[in-house]
Amino acid sequence: MSRATNTAAATNRANAGLAAMVSVRGLAHQYPDGTRALRGIDLDVATGEAVVLLGHNASGKSTLLKALTRLIEPTEGAITLDGTNVIAAGPRDLRTVRGRVGTVFQSINLVDQVSVLSNVIHGSLGRQSSPRNWFAWMASSATRDEAMECLERVGLAPFASRRADQLSGGQRQRVAIARVLMQRSRIVLADEPVAALDPRAGREVMDLLWQIVAEHELTLVCSLHQLELAESYGDRVVALQNGRLLLDGRIGDLSRADLAGLYAADAGSARADEPAAELGDLVDRAASGGPR
Amino acid sequence: MSRGETTRTRDGSVDVRRSPSRFARPGWGGLITVLVLAGLAIHGASGLDLSPERLLSAPARTWDFLSRGFPPATDRVPNLAAAMLETIEMAIIGTALGVLLSLPIALLAARNTTPHSWVHVAAKSLLTVMRSVPDLVWAMVFVVSVGLGPIAGILTIMVDTIGFAGRFFAERIEELDRGPIDALRSTGATRLSVMACAVIPTAFPSFTGTSLYCLEKSVRGAAVLGLVGAGGIGVELNVAFQLRQFDTAMTIIIMILVVVLLAERLSGVARKRMLDGGASVR
């Protein structure tokens, strides 16, 4: 059995003993067209841990992240976030849980027609649903001040009154991070946050995101495609293939070959109804310098 | 075998050299539709009482109207201006009320924001009824309900605007990018907050364009509502025609023309500025 396989088992055992901030059991999701995006995912993420999700396109990373807060309704399985059973939560409880989970999207998803400051203030809507927080000009001085502090933290305070669509891609993603800060979240889910950015802007955004996660001792689950970013920033790597968990290990315990093997293997071309490649086969092949 | 049919060669492969026929043969449904429409047109034409005498006398009657209409009765302009102003005010108030009321109905009618499929069907049906009944018919209904005058006109314009704007607002909402909506949902925002912070601002430029078009349409429509007693300049136009004061009628027609053209021009400029500059909700 490979080193990575041992690590995966060890990590799961270790996490099972800790108070997991994110706990997923048997999570599955099938889209209406029959595509099975997730198949029996088990995952525990400890408080303060930074987990990087890797995998080909359509491997289930985005679906997993969206399913965690039920932006996509899972077909089956159990999810616990910060001690709350997400699957059993009613509308009010679900909003409370979502309020504790900040999300950074690949497509950034700011409201372009409103100011940068309004976008940041929207982060507080989960804990203060008052209509005063709909737009910056309606918000209380305390809320505006807090939003300005969040913008200051991401280096965009001078842009507060600009419309969101007047910023560059990197700046917009920093506004999205400021919105997460405003949320005062305990968990951050980031879905390929640098996929739409050039390498330099991507590095800046990753540096900022990880600094904020470290400062506030947040728990992070971040999907990425860039192995070097995963190595630089993650504590632990979880790889998905065809909706199944393929690999789970500490970054320090995995070699570059292990990680490269995830993308070198022709995993993405496998038919969705085929079982995933054996983990041991894949990692052994990667470690022995197999096909890249 | 007819041209355009696929043929197979001896070895079983498909012969693709034959091009398809230029015209498709109409189906029975299409043929019946055309025959029914043609029958209705012939039946309608036969009931028009189009005698040669009527056709021959038409140019003389038109000339009579034009010769008595010019020069227009400019001395009546100050009196008519009050009725014209009333028409414009009816259009503005009716459109404003209509746009405001169409927004919640559109949110209920759009598939992605409706709370339930039954609510979606009910809201869509309401918009269809409001849009399908012609504005002059609504005006007659409101004249019966609230009496003669501008209130009936305002209500007519309001209902007409709800039917028109509500449909376009709902369609725009259904086309919206889900990204900002998901981002707001992910913060734990309530349904109302998601609509106020993501749905409406994202659709705002389109809403603005549609609303300005509604205003332009309302000014045009308001000018004739008076023909059935729903206030505005149309009342004066009706009276002028009944009394055969064609110079006054011509003055009113020219005033309507100027106001409608001005409204169209202003609305066009405003819509262009809004859409080019990106209308915003700060």
UniProtKB/TrEMBL annotation, chain B:
Start and end residues of each ABC transmembrane type-1 domain: 84-267
TM helices/strands, residue ranges: 27-46, 90-110, 136-159, 192-215, 222-243, 249-266
Record-linked InterPro entries: MetI-like, MetI-like_sf, PhnE/PtxC
Record membrane topology: Multi-pass membrane protein
Key words, A-Z: Cell membrane, Membrane, Transmembrane, Transmembrane helix, Transport
Source domain of life: Bacteria
Pfam families associated with the record: BPD_transp_1
Xref: PROSITE patterns: ABC_TM1
Gene Ontology molecular function terms on file: ABC-type phosphonate transporter activity
Matches recorded under PANTHER family: ABC TRANSPORT SYSTEM PERMEASE PROTEIN P69 (PTHR30043:SF1), PHOSPHONATES TRANSPORT SYSTEM PERMEASE PROTEIN (PTHR30043)
Family classification: Belongs to the binding-protein-dependent transport system permease family.
Name this protein carries in UniProt: Phosphonate ABC transporter, permease protein PhnE
Organism: Cryobacterium frigoriphilum
